[in-house]
């Protein structure tokens, strides 16, 4: 059962994002990097902002991240999420991937307990039709 109801709008990847979502489908969180200079970037884009190369590679992210920022959503932007309110939208960053930040949901935690700098761990939300969405929960709750 997915975190949000089935009638929640789904990601609609454009050509630049297709590689990111193809890796997510395989439950592999990967971020685009420049094949020429190694600069990481997210969201994916067709050209490196540092060296202007159009050659890309995909680097696997660690499963652990840190909360960089967050907000608690208390008003539904879509009727499908009304029953899920309140929920946390977080920006997480990865220690080994400087400059890469991912907007995601932080789950399995009371919103009053969320803190900037807290360690979180990746889990995959199967939203159907083979699509997987990366979400995060407090690291201590998902230790393997």
Largest sheet: 5 strands, antiparallel
The whole-number mean of residue pLDDT values reads: 94
Helical segment tally?
A: 1
Low-confidence stretches: none
Distance between the termini: 21 Å
**DSSP E strands, number:** 8
Shape: globular
Structural class category: mainly beta
Order of helices and strands: HEEEEEEEE
Q: Strands of the largest sheet, in order across it?
A: 6-5-4-7-8
Radius of gyration: 16 Å
Beta-strand percentage range: 35-45%
Task: Please estimate the helix content.
Answer: under 10%
Question: What would you note in describing this structure?
Answer:
- The protein is mainly beta and 144 residues long.
- It contains one helix and eight strands, in the order αββββββββ.
- The protein has one helix at 18-25, and strands spanning 30-34, 40-41, 56-60, 64-73, 87-93, 101-106, 119-128, 131-138.
- The longest helix has 8 residues, at 18-25.
């Amino acid at each position: 059962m997915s975190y949000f109801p089935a009638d929640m709008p789904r990601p609609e990847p454009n050509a630049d994002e297709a590689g990111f979502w193809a890796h997510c489908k395989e439950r592999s969180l990967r971020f685009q990097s420049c094949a020429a200079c190694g600069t990481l970037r997210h969201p994916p884009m067709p050209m490196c902002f540092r060296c202007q190369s159009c050659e890309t590679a995909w680097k696997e992210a660690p499963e652990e991240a840190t909360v960089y920022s967050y907000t608690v959503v208390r008003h539904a932007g879509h009727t499908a999420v009304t029953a899920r309110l309140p929920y946390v939208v977080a920006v997480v960053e990865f220690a080994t991937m400087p400059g890469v930040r991912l907007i995601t949901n932080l789950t399995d935690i009371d919103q009053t307990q969320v803190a900037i700098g807290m360690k979180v761990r990746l889990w995959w939300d199967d939203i159907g039709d083979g699509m997987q969405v990366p979400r995060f929960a407090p690291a201590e709750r998902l230790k393997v």
